[in-house]
Amino acid sequence: MKKKYKLKEITFQTFGCIFFIAFCILCIYPFYYIFIYSLSTPKEVQIHGITLLPLGFTLENYITIFQLEGILQSVMISASRAILGTIVTIVCSSMIAYVFTRQEFFARKFFYRLLVSALYVSAGVIPYYITMRAYGLKNNYLLYILPSAVIPYYVILIKTYMESISETLHEAAFIDGANYPTILFRIMLPLSKPILAAIGVFSAVNQWNSWYDNFLLVTNGKYQTLQLILLNFLNQADSISRQSNIDINQMKNFVLTPTSIRMTITMIAVIPVVCVYPFLQKYFVRGIMIGAIKG
Amino acid sequence: MRLENRKVKNNLTLMLIALPGLILLIAFYYVPLLGWVYAFFDYKPGYNVWDCTFVGFKYFKAVIESDDLVRVMRNTFAISFLSLLTTPIPPLFAIFLSEIKNKKFQKFVQTATTLPNFISWIIIFSIAFLMFSVDGGMVNEFLLKWKLIDEPTNLLANSDAAWIFQTLLGLWKSLGFSAIIYFAAITSVDQELLDAASVDGAGRIARIRYITIPGLLPTYFTLLLISIGNILSNGFEQYYIFSNSIVGKEIEVLDVYIYNVGFYLNNYSLSTAFGILKILLSIALLFVANTLSKKLRGTAIL
Amino acid sequence: MKRFKKKVLALLLLVSLLMSMVGCSNTTNMEEGQTNENVSTTEAAEASKKPITLSIFGAPFATNFTSGKQDDPIAKAIEAATGITIDIDAQPDQTKWQTMLATGDLPDIIMIAQGSSAIDDVKPLIEGGLIIPLDDLLEQYGSDIKQSSSKMLEYSKKYVSNQTDELYFLLGFQEESPKQFIWEVAPNVRWDYYAELGYPEINSAEDWLNVVEEMVNAHPTNEDGKKVYGFSPWFDWGLWSFNVAGDIIHGLEGKGINAGFLGDTDMVTEKPINQGILSDDSSIIKGIRFFYQANRRNLIDPDAFQKYDNALEKYAANRVMSCIVNWVYQTPNALFQAEGKTTSGYLPLPVNSSAYYMDSVGQFGQISRGYAISTNCEEPERAMELLNYIFSYEGSRTLLSGIAGQDYQEIDGKLVLNQDIIAAQQSDSNFSLKTGIQKYYNYVGLGSSAIDPKYNQPVNLFMTPEAFQTQLNGLTEDYCNHYDVSYPAEVMYDRLTTMYQDASLGGFAPATPDDLKEIEGNAELYLNNEVMRLVLAQDDAEFDAVLEEIRAHLIKLGVEKVIAFKTQAADEALAKRAELIGE
Q: When you count CB atoms within 10 A of the terminal residue's CB, does the N or C end of chain B come out lower?
């Protein structure tokens, strides 16, 4: 019986590993391709193509990007909005999520429905512009932080997760004389670290890759985001192709950005995840709950 | 008396805690909706909207009466339906991975599989072109070399396979990243219960079936209901970028159609009307799904 | 509590980091600014004017730079001449423009330049009180404008003023006869292979297809051994490829046509001569048929139905024999020269027609380069001074050719560009960013070929035959020798008597009513979706059947009304123009 069990286990583990390795290759190879493309000489690779190794190893793509006007400042802005924005988002979203878990809250149903409906709501470019301007967020750094402070999707996730935390914990805390804010900050948040970590990843990635708010509302050179600078660098050929009245004489003056630069830009977009995610993964490990219940 | 006071006091505290969030929610999601008024006028940017001619439901009618709408909605529903079919895959993936013993391997797979999520659709298209193009695409070269096919396939311009192809692409891109939520949720499954069950002789499948999966169900259903509300919003980029003169008609989903109409007709009021109808329909879908869920499962997310 | 303190500390650290970033904002700008001290000495005296900054939103740019205050050498020259620093949006966009119109949030100076709707912006801007009338300002501060642009001013007052007869817009890019080094739209083929075949005559679509087929058969692979195709067109720019191909074919057949899917315009009579897709001899039908036949002959790259970018890669890899435009061949042409294969490359073949579309020219300026001063501008007098500079010969010349005494010299009463500048423009892809020359190409008051009466030379010194001759390389020299000209485009200029489309007709024409615009928009949307069925038809019978179907549907949509309107509008426009010129 034991032997059979062990065999089953080994088969399972092996089969599992093979499956995951195969899938990982499927995920990693395209990314690897982008990586070696970004390290290849643009003209060569455009003509000959590559498979496993870069062609004519060169750092010129990265150098071109780093020499773009305003790039360093924009890295600071994007990084800071990723960090600050995420903190604000996590705090605000979890506060309101917590309130939604409390059955005794009188307007719970109404406000929660309001929140969920907001998932699907978008007002369109012009109203968005007018509203942000009316709030004084035009050319204002807070534009990057405030509108994303409460994101319905995150709130729903946090609420769902918090509801899986045993109610007895709550009751015990009440008996001990704690009030809502204390419970929220001392108990619920620490116990919700896994979902908060997940949301931290989502939010940081979103903030790092955001550019539309910048595009529409921020013309001040100090507050440009990294993605916008990169995207502007890319978009010449794309934006031309979207005009219905293409003027040929316009076309030939445009310098066409090689695919190499696109690939390099992708590498830059991925940086926060590859750097940050491994640190947050420890929260996705079982065992956090054990301490809580016993304590 | 004292109890009631306490109740009021509690509610007040809760309201205070929720207040910042509620204000932000209303300020940034609902206040801009005042812009819906544009759909009821013959609005042209540059004029004050109240000075424009009031046209009532003219543009809403135009939306419903548009020729292409049937085809576009068919595309949208088909692709969304296929997407919904793939929703159980991330949680199963997460569960399966969590059963692998080696923690380091787990972490590696977790990180590696999120990579596709960061590749923008434009690049994914470049890579897809590299893989699937007729002339020199890796897949075709491989298949031809090993004599598995005689003529190269043109997957990117195959209108029959378009829906499935796009769904698989979407799955590849989002699997690892969506699984993150389930990795987090799995940690909330009571470890003691699992240990107890295995001591009692429950095999792996039994443990997963009776403990882990039920633990993940609330998250899964919540996300499923949200996805149902999102049926109409497949997303713009993927379908715009993969659109070409041959498969364009099959993968023109609502978001792309709205963009195209906006581009060729340059009518802001019409685009707004489209947007409004889409939003109202999405919310309606959500509430219907919610009610169904209540009836069938007993719980609902609202 | 300890953890809480830690969190607060971390937060404070971040906030201070943020503050410091925001504080030391202009490091990059300042570094770059300080190195640009090359101000013309003769104009330094005028810099005693109070320095201000004016914000501008206008036409798109060909290069990428950061929005904000500009400090390239040309911007500095403008500052020296007028005391004004320009703060410009480097990525002007239709969406941004609409939001600005909606909120009245216009910068100091605007240019109506977004796509094909420039003329539509005139009415709301004037009626909405968003821009100011310029008559008085012109009198006081616009002396150079009056000198250089009298025709434009008259046109603008009468036709671009929403019937108020006041001056609101200053239309830029005025010129009469622009010349290029090499032109783009033509049957472009591999020149050395064409020579191999003995320079066969190409006088029809059939000829073109035959020649390309022969070339492909003679050279089926490129140097890497990869397969070569006849054509690799891209169809994600809407109907553009078909229209252009059709115009080329018309040219081969000896006619000068400017395509329109609902009616081509004859270059000579300037009137619509057919009903576009509904007629059998229109450019769009010829273009569609052309690609259909190329497809039947297997000359088209099977991946051509993807995107422009993918097509570009094929061209760059030297794998496509022919194209309807020439710019796609920049990479292989440059590579051949570098490798020493100096007579290899791709060039446009001339057409045997006396009329052909080479450019759209605004003798009264282009409406889509129409400047206006917004009511938000606090210093309209200075704004007018800036515009005065832009519309002066010196100003436009500075924007297009560089700084006097530095980039070009006066020699014997003629202005001559420095050799190193000409060479740099050819070789350096960042030329306009570094020198600022032609960075603001779309913003000039006077177009490249506008003649400065003082020197009797065009304001764009790069576009003179003399400058062209210095740009020849092995390939283009061989080409010029064969056709006995001094620069490639001269072949066409020698043959053509009609080559420019008058951009001003747009202002004379009556505004298209909304319902007709809607019909046209829907028709274009429909046609875009259906046109590939024609290209991919398996035989003539299928082609004709599908065409019937498409035409029937378009008629049902109501395009005949649009066509009728366009014909009538063209007549009106021509009559009005005759009036204006006759005066």
A: N
The answer to whether A80 contacts chain C (CB < 8 Å) is yes
Q: Are residues A201 and A278 in the same domain?
A: yes
- Structurally, chain C folds into a number of domains equal to 3
- Lowest mean pLDDT across B263-272, C67-76, C320-329: B263-272
Least confident of A17-31, A243-257, B83-97: A243-257
CA distance A120 to chain C (A): 22
Q: Do C22 and A141 lie within an 8 Å CB cutoff?
A: yes
Choosing from C447, C476, C508, the residue where a domain stops is C508
Establish whether this prediction's ipTM goes over 0.95: no
pLDDT digits (tens, 9 = 90+) for C460-511: 998 888 888 888 888 999 999 999 999 999 999 999 999 998 888 888 888 8
Q: Is the pLDDT of residue C97 over 90?
A: no
**CA gap A119, C237 in Å, rounded:** 34
Residue C71 shares a structural domain with residue C216: no
* Shared-domain flag, residues C132 and C69: yes
**Based on the structure, what is the number of domains in chain A?**
2
Cβ contacts of C169 within 8 Å, gap of 6 or more: C112, C122, C156, C160, C161, C367, C370, C371, C372
Residue bearing tokens 């090359």: C38
Contacts of C25 in chain A (CB under 8 A): 73, 221-222
Among chain C residues, CA nearest to B248: C529
Residue C245 resides in a domain: yes
Range list of H helices, C402-513: 419-427, 431-435, 465-469, 474-483, 490-495, 505-508
Q: Among A204-213, C116-125, C143-152, where is mean pLDDT lowest?
A: C116-125
What SS3 class is residue C104? coil
**Radius of gyration in angstroms for the set of CA atoms belonging to chain A, rounded to a whole number:** 25
- Range of A51's domain? 1-58
Grade residue C30 by pLDDT with cuts at 50, 70 and 90.
Answer: very low
Cβ neighbours of C227 in B, within 8 Å: 135
In which band, very low, low, confident or very high, does the pLDDT at C95 lie, cut at 50, 70 and 90?
confident
Which residue range is the domain that position C50 belongs to?
43-174+367-463
Q: Inform me whether the C-beta atom of residue B110 falls under 8 Å from chain A C-beta atoms.
A: yes
Judge whether B81 is closer than 8 Å to chain A, CB to CB: no
The candidate with the shortest Cα–Cα distance to A209, out of A258, A254, A144, A256, is A144
DSSP A6-59: HHHHHHHHHHHHHHHHHHHHHHHHHHHHHHHHHTB-HHHHHHH--SSS-SSB--
Subunits touching B (CB < 8 Å, at least 3 pairs)?
A, C
CA A43 to chain B, closest CA, distance in angstroms equals 16
For chain B, which domains are there? 64-297 (1.10.3720.10)
Q: Residue B91: exposed, middle, or buried by beta-carbon count in 10 A (0-12, 13-18, 19+)?
A: buried
Cβ-based contacts under 8 A for chains B and C: 77
A153, A243: one domain:
yes
Predicted pLDDT of residue C310? 80
**Percentage of residues of chain B with pLDDT beyond 90:** 18
Contacts of C525 in chain B (CB under 8 A): 68, 260-261, 264-265
A267: tokens are 């590498």
- CB of A43 within 8 Å of a chain C CB? The answer is yes
- Evaluate whether residue C34 is within a structural domain: no
Please name the member of A130, A237, A246 whose beta carbon is closest to the beta carbon of C103. A130
pLDDT > 70 fraction of chain C, expressed in percent and rounded? 91
pLDDT band for position C19 (cuts 50, 70, 90) = low
Instruction: Give the nearest chain A residue to C442 (CA atoms).
Output: A250
Same domain, A239 and A93: yes
3-class DSSP assignment, residue C91 = coil
Q: How far is CA C182 from CA B125, B259, C394, C486, in A?
A: 34, 37, 26, 11
Range scoring the smallest mean pLDDT among A192-206, B182-196, C277-291, C352-366: B182-196
